[in-house]
Write a structure and sequence with these properties.
globular; Hydrolase_4; alpha/beta; ten-stranded mixed beta sheet
């Protein structure tokens, strides 16, 4: 009897603690930390101003500060492609290493700006960590494989991440993204037609907001391509499936009660509605006249991703395809079409590509790659090259 009572008290305590945790999620500051995890840097004992710690060559990476219009300072890395570095190694070695005051004075910047054939990847990383965390440095190397003498990469830490100032929010991260795009096109002088947007996890929502925002301005801007790895449809649908570190399903008990979950979702401030953004962007492009309003969208996901299930990519792809067709298409109908047209790669997964009136929509589902490791895989290198038009 005493054992039963003790067990009952223990369960009641656990339920009470979980209820307190759920109630804390309605507090904006706590909610933000769960969504962005920006204080989990994962590079506590490493100096981001010394990129050689991640295997880069001396001055292959230039750390610099990018100011935003609303007064924040974003920490950034500019990575030279290895082929270009090899041609200018002697000059690059003469420059002092570390964080620079004015990136425009560095040789790496001039090599980007002054070469009319240079290409640029703007890189938006996922939640938690810094631009030096986990699989991000290896994935930067994957960016330039398709053209090792031409493809530069610039990555930023969003506001509130790493050494960047401020606090994250949906509008704030969009401002960070537009600031980086503005720097690329105005300071570096790279036209949007030579820029590919690459993003992973949380970064995919930021990237979609960016391309949608740039396309809806009075003078629309369209990039060469958009590559999204392990995206999610929106935060509300993610709450039911998201696992911290791929293992802890924080809202799984609540997800068993749809009405309770729907009520909790009303408290979400950062909604990141990627499904509606990709649909609006594709539909806008399809409705516009002229050749500039084009798109090249690649969605890549691994089946063994336990952090964000690959079903999110399935839904995003459907929203994009649905928007590309005048009469639309049902989800089940598209799945049936994909089953007939997709290219099966066995243990390498499968790919479906649809060429529309205004662009290309591509979905690649890998059997392996988990949530982060996939960023360094050849599938990413080929996607970047394809988005630049380097591959058929």
């Amino acid at each position: 009897m005493a054992l039963l009572k003790s067990t009952g008290y223990g369960l009641a305590a656990l339920v009470g603690l979980y209820a307190i945790f759920i109630s804390l999620l309605t507090i904006p500051s706590v909610q933000n930390q769960v969504i962005y995890l920006n204080h989990v840097t994962q590079t506590w004992f490493q100096d981001l101003n010394t990129p050689e710690q991640w295997g880069f060559l001396r001055n292959q990476v230039t750390p610099f500060i990018l100011p935003t219009p609303d007064g924040e300072c974003l920490y950034a890395w500019h990575l030279l492609p290895p082929g270009l570095y090899a041609h200018h190694e002697e000059e690059l070695l003469q420059e002092p290493p570390g964080l620079v005051r004015d990136v425009r004075e560095r040789l790496s910047f001039k090599l980007l700006r002054d070469d009319p054939s240079s290409l640029l990847v703007l890189y938006f990383h996922g939640a938690a960590g810094t631009l030096g965390s986990g699989w991000r440095p290896p994935s930067y190397r994957a960016m330039s494989v398709g053209a090792p003498g031409r493809i530069h990469t610039v990555a930023i830490d969003y506001r509130g991440f790493g050494s960047s100032s401020g606090f994250p929010s949906e509008q704030g991260l969009l401002t960070d993204a537009t600031t980086l795009a503005g720097w690329a096109m105005e300071d570096a002088g790279i036209p949007a037609s030579r820029i590919v947007i690459f993003a992973q996890s949380l970064g995919t929502a930021v990237a979609l907001s960016l391309v949608h925002h740039m396309a809806t301005r009075p003078e629309p801007t369209f990039f060469s391509g958009l590559i999204m790895v392990a995206p999610f449809a929106d935060v509300e649908s993610l709450t039911a499936t998201y696992r911290i570190a791929g293992t802890i399903p924080i809202l799984d008990p609540v997800a068993r009660f749809p009405r309770v979950l729907a009520w909790l979702n009303t408290f979400i401030l950062s909604k990141w509605t990627s499904n509606s953004k990709i649909e609006a962007f594709v539909r806008l492009c399809e409705s516009m006249k002229g050749e500039e309003a084009r798109y090249h969208i690649s969605i890549i996901h691994a089946k063994d991703d336990t952090t964000i299930p690959w079903s999110h990519s399935e839904h995003l792809f459907w929203h994009a395809v649905n928007a590309s067709l005048p009469a639309g298409i049902g989800y089940a109908e598209l799945e049936e079409e994909k089953g007939l047209s997709r290219i099966d790669r066995g243990a390498g997964g499968w790919v479906v590509e649809r060429r529309t009136r205004k662009g290309v929509l591509r979905e690649e589902i890998m059997e392996f790659g988990v949530h982060d490791r996939i960023m360094s895989y050849p599938v990413v290198s080929l996607a970047v090259a394809r988005a630049f038009g380097s591959l058929g």
